[in-house]
Specification:
Elements lengths: L7 H10 L6 H13 L3 H10 L5 H13 L3 H10 L7 H13 L3 H10 L5 H13 L3 H9 L6 H13 L3 H14 L6 H14 L2 H13 L10 H11 L3 H10 L5 H13 L3 H14 L5 H14 L2 H10 L11 H13 L3 H10 L6 H14 L2 H13 L5 H13 L3 H13 L14
Helix pairs in contact: 1-2, 2-3, 2-4, 3-4, 4-5, 4-6, 5-6, 6-7, 6-8, 7-8, 8-9, 8-10, 9-10, 10-11, 10-12, 11-12, 12-13, 12-14, 14-15, 14-16, 15-16, 16-17, 16-18, 17-18, 18-19, 18-20, 19-20, 20-21, 20-22, 21-22, 22-23, 22-24, 23-24, 24-25
Keywords: Repeat, Transit peptide
InterPro entries: PPR_At4g14850-like_plant, PPR_rpt, TPR-like_helical_dom_sf
Pfam families: PPR, PPR_2
């Protein structure tokens, strides 16, 4: 009866009206309602009032505190909990809480102390390692698991993809195909497609697409599988397929629009990129920060300065409501610099609500070298030094700007900064900040 109520106030009122309720199930139902709504204060009051408690009662409170990050309290309750009431759910809640907050040593200690583990316990620990980027620790645990399911494999595959270890992502996916009876799901395939996109592994991407079609996976859902397909084909240079898949989606969310806009931008299909951006706005889907990076990048690489200015100015309008970030200013500085509008780029940097970082100043320096504007480079140099950056590329760019202008003394001075700060440029590495 109590489970039908969505707000805890009305649920508690009905509970209180039933005088003499003593069964632990009813008390646990209301307690669980508080926990589900995140009302830990009232949950604790309910817990203290209970005439009797069982393992469910204790587990609910331990899980509530662990989930909200109050790990000290959760551990105290676990220690106070009668041994007979402790169950695997309680232990798993604690491991999840520690891992979610990056406390992997504590999570692993608790995992090792568990009297009994189930598949959820192993998956919880592996996910903890993966979401914190500790993929080597995750792999060691994964390799000794007594059994694995699709969640186990997907935690590892997604973890490798999120850590940028794309080759290992695909290697493990192949291993899953050959050694496991577990069938990949939408989350697995999104990570596989991401790896294919970053490695421009078109053939493997096509195979993944065939697998998705064969198993009738839904493209336009919360997993963003359709967006991942669009992104993969675009990054592999197949924009025609990216467009085709995009138009086949019944529901196009912001991720799908961004995948196509960014894909067209990086492939140099600038007008198509801008056209899709306009279609997105007309569709009612609001652009976000990623959308504008794609459009501004397209404008920068094609010299569409006026279009870029309009796009940048429209970001914070009521229709878009996106506040420009450093990455957007960086795109604008790059665009203006490429067009030779260095004074405007300088002025834009001065107007930024945040301090310019080395990438933004590096973009301006690159334009100074391109247009042989050592006067601007001199002003930028002081800001670079003020950042106390050990980024060799910026100092090399400063030297190159002076050298291009025939100012050999200044060029040598800039090189000496590298030596003085013991900055080393890697052999064969590019000095360009672009």
């Amino acid at each position: 009866m109590y489970a039908a109520f969505r707000d805890t106030v009305s649920m508690r009122e009905v509970f209180d009206s039933c005088s003499g309720v003593t069964d632990v199930v009813s008390w646990n139902t209301v307690l669980g309602g508080y926990v589900k709504c995140g009302d830990i204060g009232n949950a604790r009051m309910m817990f203290e009032e209970m005439p009797q408690r069982n393992g469910v009662s204790w587990s609910a409170m331990v899980g509530a505190y662990a989930g909200s990050g109050e790990l000290d309290v959760a551990r105290e309750m676990l220690d106070e909990m009668p041994a007979v009431g402790r169950n695997i759910v309680t232990w798993n809640s604690m491991i999840t809480g520690f891992a979610r907050h990056g406390l992997l040593p504590l999570a692993r200690k608790m995992f090792d102390e568990m009297p009994v583990r189930n598949l959820v316990s192993w998956n919880t620990m592996i996910r903890g390692y993966a979401v914190n980027g500790e993929m080597d620790g995750a792999r060691k645990l994964f390799d000794v698991m007594p059994e694995k399911d699709v969640i186990s494999w997907t935690c590892m595959i997604s973890g490798y993809a999120q850590a940028g270890r794309y080759t290992e992502t695909l290697e493990l996916f192949r291993e899953m195909q050959s050694e496991s009876s577990a069938r990949p799901n939408e989350v697995t395939m999104v990570s596989v497609l991401s790896a294919c996109a970053h490695l421009t592994a078109l053939e493997e991407g096509r195979w993944a697409h065939t697998y998705i079609d064969k198993h009738k996976m839904v493209l336009d859902n919360d997993f963003n599988l359709g967006a991942a397909l669009v992104d993969m084909y675009a990054k592999c240079g197949k924009t025609d397929m990216a467009v085709k898949i995009f138009h086949s989606l019944d529901q196009k969310n912001v991720s799908a629009w961004n995948a196509l806009i960014t894909g067209l931008a990086v492939n140099g299909d600038v007008q198509d990129c801008i056209d899709v951006f306009e279609q997105m706005k007309r569709s009612g889907e609001k652009p976000n920060d990623v959308t504008f990076v794609g459009v501004l990048t397209a404008c920068a690489h094609s010299g569409l300065v006026d279009e870029g200015r309009r796009c940048f100015q429209s970001m914070s309008s009521s229709n878009c409501g996106v506040q420009p970030e450093a990455k957007h200013y960086g795109c604008m500085v790059d665009m203006l610099g490429r067009a030779g509008l260095l004074e405007e780029a300088e002025e834009l940097i001065r107007s930024m609500p945040m301090a310019p970082d080395v990438m933004i100043l590096g973009a301006l320096l690159g334009a100074c070298r391109m247009h042989k504007r050592f006067d601007v480079a001199e002003r930028v140099q002081s800001e670079i030094i003020g950042l106390n950056t050990r980024q060799a590329g910026c100092h090399v760019l400063i030297s190159d700007v002076y050298a291009a202008a025939g100012k050999w003394g200044e060029a040598l001075d800039a090189r000496r900064v590298l030596q003085k700060c013991t900055i080393r440029k890697l052999p064969g590495s590019s000095s360009s900040m672009r």
